[in-house]
Amino acid sequence: MKTQLESSTRLLGGPVIRKCLFVPLAMFVLSSCNLFAADEFQELVRLVPRSSNAIVLLNVEKAKDSPMGLRENWRANIEKAFEAGMIRVPPQATRFVLASQIDLEFMEPLWEAAIVDLDEEISIEQIAKRRGGVIDTIENLPALVLSNDTYIVQFGPKTLGAMGPANRQAVVRWIRDVRKPSPPPLSAYLQQAAVFSDDTGSQVIMAVDLDGAMSFERIGKYLKSKQKRLDEWNANLLELTKLLCNVRGIRIGVRIGEKPSARIVIDLRDDASGIASYAKPLVLQIMSDLGTSINEMQSWTAQAKGNEISLSGRLTNSGLRRLLSVIDSPVANEHTGAKAPISPGELPAIRAKASRDYFRAVVRMFGDLKEDMRNSKNLASTSLWFDKYARRIERLPMHNVDNEVLDYSGFVAGQMRQASQTVKTMGIRGGARTAQITSSNAGPYVVGTTRWGRYGRYGGYGGVSSYGVYGGYGVYGQRAEMKNVEAQRRTIRAQEKGVAATDVGQLRQGVIAATTDIRRKMTQKYQLQF
Predict the structure, then answer these.
(1) Is 260 helix (H, G, I), strand (E, B) or coil?
(2) How many helices (H) and strands (E) does the chain have?
(3) CA atoms of 455 and 453, how far apart (whole Å)
(4) What's the whole-model pTM score?
(5) φ, ψ for residue 137 (rounded to 5)?
(6) Closest among 131, 122, 118, 68 to 90, alpha carbons compared
């Protein structure tokens, strides 16, 4: 019961979905067409706040019993994985639902909620004893407000809910809505995603309702910036813009068989078959631009058929960890409730083990992303994972961990954030510099075409452009000028990428050196191989 309580209260100890969990078009991640059976999740889905526009369902029991789960003995090891911070779902959970209402314009959650079924009973009083907080009663249900801005509600002996931020009025309305005989309907898109049959054996489904979220102008502006790629694909800008601005949503799913596999499905209102020839590079381009690439997706199979665009294939273990990083519940740094007494003689061994497990979790996370730090191009296409892994490192349980290891982990998280920021800075700075290169200041090469041509039309001193209106030389000068402008812009972009590549390489080497140093120190200090 102690382990049950500790694991469960970690899960419910803070807001449970981060803003990057459902970034529209930022994660054309995965979906099998047929997912969870209605009777398996319907009771938990019934408790989801009705204004949700994003949902995640995780069948923990089926993940443990999957071929990969059985081979790697997840039932025995999932507790260790959870303690090490690699899995954010309590090992005693049987079914797990996350939901949120995302402000899709600013990519910020207005609220976040979790509903979890456990395999043992747990009471609010037990949670309060372990974690502290103030016990409350909301709509005749036991509740607890924690100091980290989270409300916990006990819907049943084995069913808990959590909402953050801890707005009591919002929690009251949530409970009242879901307890009505005829509650307000959940989004039709999310409801459909939540009741698919389980024929394919998928263990994870994620879905975001994008109805009305994408404006024609916004999509058109983005696609216009990719005109060169559109030309390569022989794509029609107008038709593609119309297609994408009518997106209904994105379904996300993972199947954990002998090896993990996944499928992206983008649901549209119109027929997508017209883009079948370039559906894959289109999806990969968008993912790259939004920093959500996963390397193995380059070899996946794409389809554009009916009202769907899909991308499917195998995942490596690293790719699976990246995808599961979106199922992320913050872990409190310290537990506030009473702990079992530890004798002084036990403390060194406990501290050594806690420090080693913590260190190895950090090294594993850095290892997943280390190759992406070899150059700025890779980092730019995967930058979202750096922010998510940095946050995950910062939420690792710190109890009994050596202070030097904590300092090391803080350094690694900081370097990951700095790597992501380097890419953002590269784009902002490069954009600002290229915007200054226009037809009127494109350098000495265009003197006599346009810079002086404005005066040449009147005074005859404009070189080529002074004859352009009558002799046709103006068109030639404009083309030459445009080529020169684009050449200078390419030079600027190359310069910025070079600076970013150097910075990222230094960050990577800094983490590698720090890892070697702290491993040596801790191995010597605890006489235990780190």
Answers:
(1) strand
(2) 19, 12
(3) 5
(4) 0.71
(5) -130, 125
(6) 118
In the block, residue with structure tokens 């307000």? 184
Please state the domain extents for the chain. 2-323, 345-530
Task: Enter the tokens of residue 222.
Answer: 């983005």
Per-residue pLDDT of the chain (530 residues; tens, 9 = 90+): 444 444 444 445 444 333 333 333 333 333 333 344 445 688 888 899 999 998 888 888 888 888 888 887 877 776 666 555 555 666 678 888 889 888 877 666 788 898 988 888 889 998 888 778 899 999 999 999 988 788 999 999 999 999 988 999 999 999 999 999 888 888 989 988 776 534 456 788 889 899 988 899 999 999 999 999 999 999 999 999 999 999 999 988 888 888 888 888 999 999 999 999 999 999 999 888 878 888 899 999 999 999 999 999 998 888 887 877 765 553 343 333 345 566 677 788 989 998 998 999 899 888 888 877 776 666 677 877 888 888 788 877 777 899 999 999 999 999 888 887 877 776 544 454 555 555 544 444 333 333 333 333 333 333 333 334 334 445 455 556 655 655 655 665 566 666 666 777 788 889 999 999 999 999 999 999 99
